[in-house]
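Chapter review: from sequence to fold.
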Amino acid sequence: MLGVVFWQSAASKPGTIPTNADTAIKVATSGGTVLGQVGFGILADIVGRKRMYGLELILIIFATLAQSLSSSSPGISVVGLIIFWRVLMGIGIGGDYPLSSIITSEFATTKWRGAMMGAVFAMQGIGQLVAALIALIVTTGFKQSLVTAKNAAACDGVCQLAVDKMWRVIIGFGAVPGCIALYYRLTIPETPRYTFDVARDVEKAGEDTKAYIQGKAEGRPDEIRRATIIADSEGRLETPKASWGDFISHYRQWKFGKVLLGTAGSWFFLDVAFYGLGLNNSIILGAIGYSKGDNMYEVFRRNAIGNLILVCAGAIPGYWVTVATVDTLGRKPIQFMGFTMLTILFVVIGFAYDKLLKHNGALLALYVLAQFFFNFGPNATTFIVPGECFPTRYRSTSHGLSAASGKIGAIIAQVVFGPLRQRGAPPGSNDSPWLNHVMEIFALFMLCGLFTTFLIPETKRKTLEELAGEVPGTANFDPGSRSAAYKTNSHQDSGSGEKEV
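The token string follows.
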């Protein structure tokens, strides 16, 4: 749509956004997301989850609305403006990754924690569905203007005006769900685990827990008792304070460092292929007859319907099958299975690509299966596991680093593999003669993800404290990381001979 509005008078391929501009706009979001994931992840561990949750959504809402109102001027191009706002929007989106994951994790029950976190992540699929529906509704609303042009190059006058309104409505509508959710984010209480483990306010954490069970916003402890307990416990609590030195010391231990390597590595390998495959949606839509039309109305309408089909056929079912099974099958088996199936699917698509092109139904089936096993597989588990397996003081930072690793993979997919698929194509052509080899490379990335999965623990039905190495008697217990462990002042009782702790 941007090509129709802002490149209608271009000397080459009028009505089509230049490849460099298209790539820059896409990468801007991913680049901002990396900054947001790391920045908000660190800040949530320093100042608390509650203080940061909602700020990232305000940023998303503001940047989304500003983006929908952008336009070119003699002093600046529309590409520059959109890149600026998409970087800011990406920072907000990035902040949502660690915050939504760890807040859900720290509030959830152990038994159904995975399902709750999976349901939060599955809202991405619902968002994709609603976005496609909005595009279809807007296209239908401007039908009379769109039917006047046969193709993008001829879409001027009333057609161009209609498309200019369409893309702004579609982008701007993305702020509506955010506005609805903003109140709930700003009023959510601090997680008791953060209050207890990091803020070291035992009394407040206990009262918040009681209030949460009773459905209240937050606990109201007796301030005198609270101050007394804080003063009494300062000399007896052994919780290591978060610092860069402690962070390095903690992850320098292989049993903890390998987990961060596993979560970050798995997310990186996943997103290279996940976002790389998304760049080829137009080929799949063409295969099922939903990429062309007799006029611009048919083009936009079929594209919206095609996206609805792809989302409903593969992505949404995959998300919700994960929600239904993640607490029974386990995170690690689902991730193993997902990477294994994706490796096989990409091998088949890559080595049999020319034959598959002659059978559109087969190519569509493999694409839908890939989307299904992305979401009933590593796309969901890479979001869930980092929110569970790290200590409270570094849970948000570690999740942010893992997620940022994934987005770096997405940037590589957009910058490297996007142009690579067109290697050998005639200048100005949209052909993808190297696409089969790109699919083969993706198969290798999925195989690497299979190996990094060995580094992560199974978190099913385990408490966050046990996973963080804070529970004595468990396999990964680390005395140096034990949460709020009281110093043992053992002494022989003269009367009973028992130890007092």
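Two observations follow directly from the output. Confidence is low (pLDDT under 50) at residues 483-501. The longest helix spans residues 78-107.
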